[in-house]
Amino acid sequence: MDIKPIKTDADYRSALKEIESLMMAKADSPEGEKLDVLATLVEAYEAKHYPIDMPDPIEAIKFEMEQQGLSIKDLEPMIGRSNRVYEVLSHKRNLSLNMIRNLNQGLGIPAEVLIQTSREVHASVIG
Fold first, then answer.
1. For residues 31 and 101, what is the distance between their CA atoms, to the nearest angstrom?
2. Looking at the predicted structure, is the pLDDT value of residue 26 above 80?
């Protein structure tokens, strides 16, 4: 298969089949490079045609708090003093990198979810 843009579902399925056949290729071989390029093309196609709607980071924190029966006090080691926790949960303060790391490890929330701008904060900035 020649490498070409993925424009249709047929192109997509064909690229996936080709990727499957190249999975054991060595990274520095021509097959490995072809695999890398095809994977990049497939990722771009999937991002455009099958976007994943990630949850709002603050809603994800609140959900995990509820699921695990956690209180504001339980989040203090991950976020800071209780007033800081309240500020984060009320969308008045953005998550810092350290908070994201701590919440990822402490609550198991994926970093990809936590690094997003909260929809409420984003809406107030745009609107």
1. 36
2. yes
Q: Tens digits of per-residue pLDDT, 55-107? A: 899 999 999 999 999 999 999 999 999 999 999 999 999 999 999 999 999 99
| Domain 57-126 top-level CATH class | mainly alpha
125 band by pLDDT with thresholds 50, 70 and 90: very low
Q: What is the pTM of this model?
A: 0.55
- Residue positions counted in the chain: 127
At what angle are helices 57-68 and 82-89 packed, to 10 degrees?
120
Contact 120, 58 (CB under 8 A): yes
Q: In this structure, which amino acid lies at residue 8?
A: T
Question: Read out DSSP for 71-116?
Answer: -HHHHHHHH-SHHHHHHHHTTSSPPPHHHHHHHHHHH---HHHHTS
Chain position carrying tokens 């095809």? 38
Cα separation values, 65 from 40, 83, 85, Å: 36, 17, 12
